[in-house]
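Running log. JK asked me to keep both predictions on one page so they can be read side by side. First protein, sequence followed by its tokens:
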Amino acid sequence: MTPTATYRLQLQPAFPFARAAAVLPYLAGLGVSHLHLSPVLEAVPGSTHGYDVTDPTRVREELGGEEGLRSLARAAREHGMGLVVDIVPNHMALVPRHSPALWDVLRHGPDSPYARWFDIDWDAGGGRLLLPVLAGRFGDELSRLRISADAGGTVEYGEHRFPLRPGTGPGAGPADLVSVLDAQWYRLGWWRLARTELNHRRFFTVAELIGVRVEDPEVFDATHAKILELVRDGVVAGLRVDHPDGLADPEAYLRRLAGAAGGACWTVVEKILTGDERLPASWPVAGTTGYDALHRIDGLFTDPEGAAELAFQYREFTGLPADRGGRWEPTRLRAAHRIAGRELGSEIAALTRLAVRACAADPSLRDHAPWALSTAIRELLVRLPVYRPYRTGGGTASEVLTPAAAVAAKAVFASAAEAGAVDAVRDLALGRAGGGPDREAFRDRFAQTASAVRAKSVEDTAYYRWTPLLSANEVGGDPARPAVSPADFHAYAARTARDHPANGTVLTTHDTKRSADVRAGIAVLSQAPELWAGFLERVTAEAARQPGGRAPDPQLAWTAWQTALGFGFPYEERLRAALLKGAREAALHTSWAEPDEAYEAALSAFVAAGPAGPPLHSVASFARELEPYVRADVLGSVLLQLTMPGVPDVYQGTERDYRALVDPDNRAPFEEGPATAKTALTRAALTLRRQRPEVFGVSGTYTPLTVSGPAEGHCVAYCRTGEVVAAVTRLSLRLERAGGWRGTEVELPDGVWADALSGREVRGGRRVAAAELFLDGPVALLVRERDGDDR
């Protein structure tokens, strides 16, 4: 059954299945049809997110085990609800002491029955798997390594435990520690080696998450047996597939998953679409998890002229050069070069090895030097305009790779002859050239790496380097063009209703960098950039009078004050943590690998003396001034998400006022709280969806309503299946400054309509004044009660 709406709960030891069951009455009353659970399979002990799976064959004991999950499903059914579960096919945690499969691989090497589970290049490691866990170089850490006779012999290093290869442990004859370690199927190395020497596929740049080869049917069966059992037993009714772009062949995987699930599951994929990119039509899924909808909704409440003015102010205030944060595209490209050339060096090396062998097996591609192939791979990856190319999809791969190759060839190669390496790499990535088994391996690995380069360079680097309007820097967004017109929104919604009517929609997730309420508090600045300029000048001066109140760099100051304003109540520790994470991700002044203690101390001092210090009264005052307009945007966003085509996912707590920053700030255990105007709107819309699934479901229609008059650009309205009308006010601050609605009208379909929020009746079949439509607030949710000629 397709859900009418889902509610995301972040499971963790502090919020297990039993606590989820306890909130079922509240969630049923809210109107959702399904609980959406974060990963439920066995994970690293203490994990607050569950994406670090250690054993896909068991339900996580810390959450209550399989019986706890089945009990939750029974309780949910009693409340008329089902379960949707997040699954993680791409990777597992490389924490052997908690993973039976990895433990066996480390003990028995390539002969282990589990060795085929993992994407390990044994040849590249000299027959050994590199484990970059040492705090320093091997020689410096040798004294901290111990051999134990426990569990058949283990290597101990801090909290780490690794098995010994049979016949190499205590009692196996005279051997020193180094000899024992050298005899293992793995090599313990300095953590910094992960950048360049790693010989396993990982999740992005996380060496502790190892890639799983679900393209192998036996591996798929073994790693999906438990979740598919839960589907067959009716415990799980829907699946959210995490990071499908990391898989060798996403479409083949999804077809296998759909077949194994027997068509019984509503399935969505965490696919990030860029610009006008479309989800491949051949994928057997309901749609994406909804970041594409998030971008369109956020964009409606962003003023394009004001956003451009903020970008100008930002460049003036920060003085940043174009490629270090002054302009978007040069910043993105510089970040991509850093990620591809530095953070993902191991991945580029692996691709180069494959390319060299594939070219050697094809006479037409021989004699391309390894350095040229490596350079071509890197330059092509950084210029892809999307997350990855696909094997199929109507020429999509060629359409993406061919223009990128043309630009890459001119960028770095001195001669046309050397630039031929780019064409060779392009053809390898398209599967058109090369020889032997390495040709297909290269194509798959190139696409997998492309998604890592894009995600790390855009979401985790450039988004923290280019920050004129922080609300635009969200997954799936377009910081260079953050605004979306009503016409573009209607076109997107109509396309969704036609192509993927059960697509997911979201406003806040466990991965959003700022919750929807925080983003709304920042996006409103695009309507009044001159007010922002005055505020920034005022608080900068106020902070400068405090010890430590001068920011260590102007970009941080800009980012901090916008974050504080959107956050609304800048608790010092939460704000500091988010800003520190952002500075390390940006890697301009400090980074995770090379933290600058002096810079980070200055950052902390600035937060304490500035946004969380005496200038806080100015932040609060400005926030109160903007509050009515922020409220209009918040309510408008909620109504759009809950009534537009698709299946809305409500993140835990966001039916109330909810302000959270980047993880882990947004992953605290769920707690019930006081109802707000947003709660009432959420309950009204979700209840309506559940009562009238035919209006919003896969057979429902979407019809934009005509708005005419001097303020027509400030209203978005549409009708769902002739029975429900949603109308929202957009850019309300600009609307007020322009004199209000001034005779603007909305063409309301025939009938007598009741506002689901106020109960007030509105007669249709006419042009209704926008001022009348929005008499009770900035949004209207109308339900058709009877024909217009009924009395």
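And the second, directly underneath as requested:
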Amino acid sequence: MNLNKGVFTLLFSLVWVLTLFGQDQGVALPLKEILVAIEKQHKVTFNYIEEEILVFKIPAPNPKNTLEQKIDYIQTQTKLRFKFVNDQSITISNNQKLDKPLCGYLVDSESNLPIFNATIRISGTNVYVLSDEKGFFQLPVVSSNPIEINHVSYASKTVLVNEIYVDNCPTFPLNLTVQELEEVVAQVYLTTGIRKKTEGTFEIKPKKFGILPGLVEPDVLQTMQQIPGIISTDETIANVNVRGGTHDQNLFLWNGIRLFQTGHFYGLISALNPNLAHTIQLSKNGSSAFYGESVSSVIDISSRSNSVENTNSTIGVNMINAELYTKVKTGEKSSFEVAARRSFTDMLASPTYKNYFNRIFQNTEVIDVTNNQDINYNNTEDFYFYDVTLQYHQKIGQKSELFFDALAISNELTFNESTLVNNQTLARNSQLNQQTLGGNVTWKTNWNAKNSSELSIYSSYYQLDANNQSVENNQILLQENTVLDNGIRLKNSHQLSETVMLTNGYQFNEIGIRSFDDINIPQFTRTVKEVLRSHALIAEIDYSSKNNRLFARLGARGNYFEKWSLFLLEPRLHLNYALNDHLNVELSGEQKNQTASQIIDLQQDFLGVEKRRWVLANNESIPIQQSNQASLGVVFRKNNWLIHPEAFYKKVEGITSSAQGFQNQLEFVKVIGQYEVYGAEVLIQKQIDQFTGWFNYSYNNNDYTFEGYLPPQFANNFEVNHSMAFGATYQWNNLKVALGSKWFTGRPNTIPLSNEPIFPTPGNPEIVYSRPNQENLDDYFQVNFSTAYSVELGKKTNLFMGVSVLNLFNQRNIINRFYRLNPDSNAIEEVNTYSLELTPNAFLKVNF
């Protein structure tokens, strides 16, 4: 009896409480609708400014309540002020501090730096704005709908309008989009937009850069050279050396498409449009087993977005090219993106273009060692480049996505050269065309919370054509080098537990490479075509401890080559352990193989501009290259200091002398060997508010070994014993400034033993060289400067402008030297290649 009474009392109390709060329950309605209903029920009139109540949406009060109870409820929910003018007339007023547009600031949750170009949309409408350089946004209309915030690099966020309708303009932190097991060791590395990840890779987002010295636009492949251990001794991105390796030993991927051409202007400019929101995953060692075909580093570039973003466009121009970018939201779950760029160098020769041209096409000034005379050739040129990328993104249901990617890259040069021979002018016309076409279709799906798959079908085509007509004689040389790379990739991910993820997959690849030569005098034709099919089975386990102290990745890639019935296993390892909150230790190791590489048959091939041609391993004269790497490093972070030293060792076997670009006694010698490099790298960085300063240093000792050649061991052509870089960036409101310098010891060089050639047979002079790479060129030094400024032209339009100066002090650096014989006088000529001279550039860009 007492129990029943207690239960009855409890139920009665619960009903009473629910009745009391019943007016708060139900679907939220616009406040205006609620006021209209109250006016009809209680025969009163509310007087208000409509904009002041539009932001409010609340559950309707209980219709059984009195007028006073309803007003009290609304005041509690909205903080609006109600005043009875008389029994039938009531005025509603707002806090005057809230009489402002809906505005706010977006910042990075970790660095607290402003987030630019985020989309802020009023839910359920087509009204949106973009955040500016300060992260500020201001909505043009007032609405009670929630506010959706989206950015390609950050997790989406939805805020209620009452979170914005407060005093001043509130700040909203956004979290970077980070996949599971991808913790970040160093959030800001050199500048915003470069991170060191726990899995050992560097993640580079050029769009998020504050600014870097010498770069006003986020040139995708130039930026990676800011990281220690990555250098280009000839200033080009077509000759990037990672820990002593050659450029072709790096694997370059764009949205899953392998790139066999990476630069415009034969390497001075990245072939990828800077307007795309690229994310670069760079691995110098311990790379994922899903990457094959490289014995040096992996550069995986993606411009895909995890979300379907709103329509926005950019047009811009600098002193080399004009560019266009637009992203169109074609539906709630789909978007189309196009980026195009074309140089106007064939119509207008700007000072920037002239300097670039002189850098790439130099060697018209040749020093005669014997007579100290200058030999000059006259030439005119017609050169231009373009690139186009197309992307389509379609979300399918709640679990799947489909991506279509395509790109086209082209460099086209017409070269007219003349010289005076026996008081007669001889002129010839030559052409050099370089093109890349690529496509990829990728399907991703999440089967459930723990299992996902990704399937890609891709194709990459590269062609290099040259028609070389000699000015000294009637010889015509036709050359062609083509590559067709097709493949399928399947990747499955399984979250086995809270700490363990298993990833497995399969890759099929078919690559064909063709080289063609045709000479009229003497008559000679050669065609070489090789095709190689390979299969790879991949397995990888990631472990991340519950306290996030330990991350371990162990992987293996098994390659099977049909042509030789050959199986090669590639183990991979990366460990990262946090000794404490400030200090991480990293250990990496890997074995990798590579079948496609570049060689140089003759230095004058392809007009002597792009001398390298792609070839396939035949497992005889051109073996499969194999590498072994190991590295050990630490990352220390505290009080905005970052210190990152690392020691490494790398050995690459199966290299050919033709792939190393020799221009001495080994130029026409074909031998197989290896190189072995060990060294250390360190980065020291300090960040103070909007100021970031850094210093990096690299040391490496890099030696060739060619058994059967005397001497068998000597310095690598790409050895740079010491290199250093200093830099500082600062951002103040809409102004960004960067100043930096780099210095490195000169490349190895081989000098003649005498200024006079020898004559083994009459009429056949030869240069006698000293020991290979026994000398070094002078040290290289350069200072670069950049500044950029942004202006808000409207609610949806921003203007960006910037200026950069490469080689600010016009330092005259010799970056290459070789010797040749003058065919007329048999004199030994010294040919120097000089670095880019003082080169200004400027750009204007409009975002809308």
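Observation for JK regarding the second prediction: The two ends are 75 Å apart (CA to CA).
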